[in-house]
Amino acid sequence: MMETVSQRLHQVLDSLPQGVRLVAVSKYHPSESILEAYAEGQRLFGESHVQELQAKHTQLPDDIEWHFIGHLQTNKVKYIVPYVAMIEAVDSIRLLREIERQAARCNRVVDVLLELHIAEEETKYGLTPDACRQLLAEGEWRDMPHVRICGLMMMASYVEDEEQIRREMMIASDLFDELKTNYFAHSPWFCERSWGMSHDYPIACQCHSTLVRVGTTIFGERVY
Ligand SMILES: *Cc1c(COP(=O)(O)O)cnc(C)c1O
User: Fold this and answer.
1) Looking at CB atoms within 10 Å, which of 18, 57, 127, 221 has the fewest?
2) For 126-209, where are the alpha helices, taking DSSP H only?
3) What is the pLDDT of residue 17?
4) DSSP 8-class letter at 3
5) Does ligand 1 lie within 6 Å of residue 29's CB atom?
């Protein structure tokens, strides 16, 4: 028998330890699938394309918390800043500046995560740990009252080797601790560690993740 979205959603939710929230990644899946999860109480959804998010945001209930999890071009920031709950993949000071500028225009404070590049794969976006340290050390972010840096996001290498995945996630977790001590000790909002996808979220839960971003396991294979 085919399992439904709601059954798979509950299987994932039931497997998460306390303190780990689920970002249901709904990219390329229709609004009907989102509504199935919504009917079960899921409110946090992740999308990675601006146009698609725009369309879904207009169609779907207002109390959905949208996380933008994809690579965001600076010229598209203005479209999502008025309503997005979190921009997860900030990987440059340029992007951060544009989020600050657009958030100021609509009088919002936008939560963001800094995206790390730790995986060995060439194609992934993100800041190396040293680039991330440098961005914070330079301090320009301190003059951005409309941006709140809430933690780190990363994608581990897409490999079978669980030890490699674990190693990469622990590099991210250790960096989180270091930055927390050095810059955010008195900032309770700096508390998010976003790692773990369909194939590796059980490992992420053992590596101090607070947000797992799971798509395929809940909604099935994406049709591009
Ligand atoms: C698509 C996507 C996910 C979800 O991937 P699944 O393998 O379908 O769970 C998670 N994070 C990011 C950044 C994504 O683009």
Assistant:
1) 18
2) 129-138, 162-183, 201-206
3) 98
4) P
5) no
- Predicted confidence (pLDDT) per residue in 9-58, tens digit: 999 999 999 999 999 999 999 999 999 999 999 999 999 999 999 999 99
Whole-prediction pTM: 0.97
| Residue linked to tokens 């050095």 | 182
Distance (Å, rounded) from C-alpha 125 to C-alpha 137?
Answer: 21
Shortest-distance Cα residue to atom 7 of ligand 1:
198
Q: What separation in Å is there between the alpha carbon of 134 and the centre of ligand 1?
A: 27
- What DSSP letter does each residue of 105-141 carry, written as one string? HTT--EEEEEEE--SS-SS---B-HHHHHHHHHH-GG
Atom of ligand 1 lying closest to residue 219 CA: 8
- In angstroms, the CA 131 to CA 128 distance is 5
> Which atom from ligand 1 is nearest to the alpha carbon of 153?
13
Residue 43 contacts residue 63 (beta carbons within 8 Å): yes
- What span, in angstroms and rounded, lies between the C-alpha atoms of 197 and 211? 10
Instruction: Locate 88 and state its tokens.
Output: 């997860």
